[in-house]
Amino acid sequence: MHLTGNGRCRYPLFPMPTSLAPASIAELTQVAQRVRVHIVNMVFRAQSGHPGGSLSAVELGVSLFWKHLRCDPANPDWPDRDRFILSKGHATPFLYSVLAERGYFSPELLDGFRTLGSPLQGHPSMGAAPGVEMSSGSLGQGLSFAIGHALSGRLDRRDFHCWVMMGDGELNEGQVWEAAMAVPHFGLGDRIIAIVDRNGIQNDGFADTIMRTNPPAMWAGFGWKVIECDGHDMAAVDQALSEAERAEERPRVVVAHTVKGRGVSFMENNPGFHGKAPTTDQLAQALTEIAGGLR
Amino acid sequence: MTAAPPAAATREAYPVALLELVEQGIDVVALDADLSVSTMGYQFGEKHPDRWHTVGVAEANMVGIAAGFAANGKTAFIASFASFLPGRCFDQLRTSVAQPRGGLNVKCVASHGGVTVGEDGMSAQAIEDVALATTLIPFDVIVPADFESARQAIVAVGKTTRPAYVRTGRPKVAALYDSAYRFEIGRAHVLRPGTDVTLIACGILVGIAVEAAAQLAAEGVSARVLDMATIKPIDREAVLAAARETGAIVTAEEHQTHGGLGTAVARVLAETVPTPIAFVGVDRYGTSGKWDQLLGYFELTPARLAAAAREVIARKR
Fold first, then answer.
1. Element (H, E) at A237
2. Catalytically annotated residue among B20, B59, B128, B271
3. Predicted TM-score (pTM) above 0.90
4. Pairwise CB contact (< 8 Å): B51 & A155
5. Does the annotation mark B119 as catalytic?
6. C-alpha distance from B102 to closest chain A C-alpha (Å)
7. Are B302 and B246 part of one and the same domain?
8. Using an 8 Å Cβ cutoff, are B229 and B153 in contact?
9. Do residues A130 and A76 touch, judged by C-beta distance below 8 A?
10. Interface pTM, i.e. ipTM
């Protein structure tokens, strides 16, 4: 076994098939802004959906898909691709927007979100659109699914990473911890990386009042290396994901401290916008604020 | 004349079938959840340690891992007790296995089905697993009657790309079939011809139905016995033929009469040839006892099936 500079190991590297010029922080920030515009437009058009937990995940997703995920949007089923598994399935406005911006499908497809006949259901349906790796929406199942991918990759001598994004409310689900104990047990620290979008709000309200958890301590207790970062500082996110990619025996989890609804003042830190659409006036305000950048 | 094959438990067929599938080039992986000594999955693990994992007491995680394997082209088997699989992981089977891409290639082989698990008592006695499994839309659901049919059923599901649920049992039961038998998914097998009534059974009740038919024959009643191993998709033609040719039906299963074999048969009859039918099953929670004592306790006996047959024949017009 040999380790390479970016932390991959075991088998020779395949080059990343999609050539991307190294993206600057400024460029990634612009992508993130477009993703935010998609998110609020999609939820407004559908008059339903989950804007809060989508807006909190934007920098994480953009940094991942533009700088860390070995992927080829033209060949989404490439067996050696890195997998991005969205376990917090309600964040589809985020997932679909990132996939569209990254070139998996046309952004025009976003217009059909949540409508009859569109492949973009309210929660992800595996394979319905390119890049949608997993059916989710019932929380807590993504890390288990990733273990199956990772063990399969090991059996087939394929070298890829599985990135799993979870919400902090999702950590209430017991299955997360069944999987959390299994990842180090199976020695999958070189294959699975977890991300927790720690936005502090779940469906019924603030996470500390619904079910208080301490994600860093809990993951550490299960044998994971915890990397914390400001989930809206693009440079900090990039640094955290880079650190997470460096192979070591312990699996890594990035606990990203985020703000639910980030980028739209009346949605920020507001449990009311976990799963609610803006009005026409609110949409206009949201788009204006997003255009002004993160404050 | 050859000697009758020895009695064997249907669960014993599981590792035998898995090894057979690997020999035939099927890309099998298998998972257990700390019950591999009972499900017999460990015997596969001894031969193929790279293709077998035990995940600890964590059925939900096991299902998700299997789904991940299947997403990479593997034929993923998972095993546990029928009281836990699907009971402890139904939502995972629905969301991570049944719904993606029309159903991922995951096969559940749930042992210790029904009340004949015995001394462990009611919490271990699965009488709702078949009902749950049949609601998972792409799943085939199979309850084999003896070792040979279980071996062939597990091999058969291993060769499809659909998800499946196969229920096996704990006790050793007499062989009904030898290697000349050919199991097919969705095809019932007539074990005994008959014209007055048809006993449609699955699992351990098939052998009991054969005994009941012998009792009825002594009274001059001609009872057909159908081994309906596949609950879903059910063999509609065999049910229809039984209705048309015998005019009365008894279903028998080691399961509730809600959502199991009887329900599936009744639906076919209701849609085609409404026919007098009686349901023999287990509609109460159990207790400890030896497996054969429990068959008596729950009246899963030849005498009960024969009585049900007489009752249903009396309802013929």
1. helix A234-245
2. B59
3. yes
4. yes
5. no
6. 9
7. yes
8. yes
9. yes
10. 0.95
